[in-house]
Amino acid sequence: MAVSNATMGSASSRGIDGVTALPAVGAMVGITFAVPGEIDGWRWLHWVCKPLATVLILGMVLRTEQVVSQRYRRWMAAGMVASLAGDIFLMLPVDAFVAGLVSFLLAHVCFIVALLDDSRFAERPVGMLACVAYGAFNLWALWPSLPDALHLPVVVYVLVLASMGGQAVVRARRHATDALAASAQWSMAGALIFMLSDTLLAWDRFRFAIPMSGLWVLATYYTALWCLARSVRGSH
Q: Which of 3, 64, 73, 112 has its CA 20 to 30 Å from the CA of residue 236?
């Protein structure tokens, strides 16, 4: 019976992942084929599927039965909600970049609080320092292209994003061999891929056009959110 239940749980998880992937693919296809500056069918596909994919990933967090801790789940869910707000702001046919930036800033703060549930801030500093150095390099490279009004918001955002990635590495090192190892590995993967996604977005917006940037940004973004959602699940 235990084996049967585990098998059923695994099949159910795969089914949920498949359903979640459909709108994510729709969002990527929509943004790839949408005509710039026009509201066409592809654009509508993107608008419908982009927030829906995040909602379904949030649902993964809320439906997970065996969790690392309820506090970890709550803060991960809060981060997903803030990410959903950021999704909506960044896809609006107006320039709501700052509102989107603030939304994702709050999301990263929530993720950091979740990661601190079972690890101390920067207790093993090598990973933290590496992520901060990565963020500082990108900030230095993008600085000449940033509008003056965005200097302070972007500096704060990069610092928080790098801290989120660094803390995920700290957590993974702390729990490398204990019962939280799987969760910690998933959260580290999600945080680092999130940093990559934001890097692609920033370079495409402020430095030079990346071919099919929407596809790469969303592919890494949804992968990051999925990994963070998966980290909520405790060991079986």
A: 112
Beta-bridge partners for 67: 233
User: Tell me, what DSSP letter sits at residue 210?
Assistant: P
Distance CA 131, CA 110 (A): 18
Q: 220 — phi, psi (to 5°)?
A: -75, -35
Quick check: 166 and 127 in contact, CB under 8 A?
yes
pLDDT in tens, 29-77: 999 999 888 889 999 999 999 999 999 999 999 999 899 999 999 999 9
CA distances from 42 to 33, 53, 124, 164, 187 (A): 6, 16, 46, 33, 32
Sequence-ordered list of residues with C-beta below 8 angstroms from that of 90, at least 6 positions apart, any chain: 96, 97, 100
Q: What are the backbone angles phi and psi of residue 233, rounded to the nearest 5°?
A: -75, 130
What is the C-alpha end-to-end distance of the chain, expressed in Å?
Answer: 15
The pair of three-digit structure tokens given for residue 140, joined into one six-digit string: 């230095």
Q: List the Cα angle 157/159/163 in 5-degree steps.
A: 115
pTM of structure: 0.90
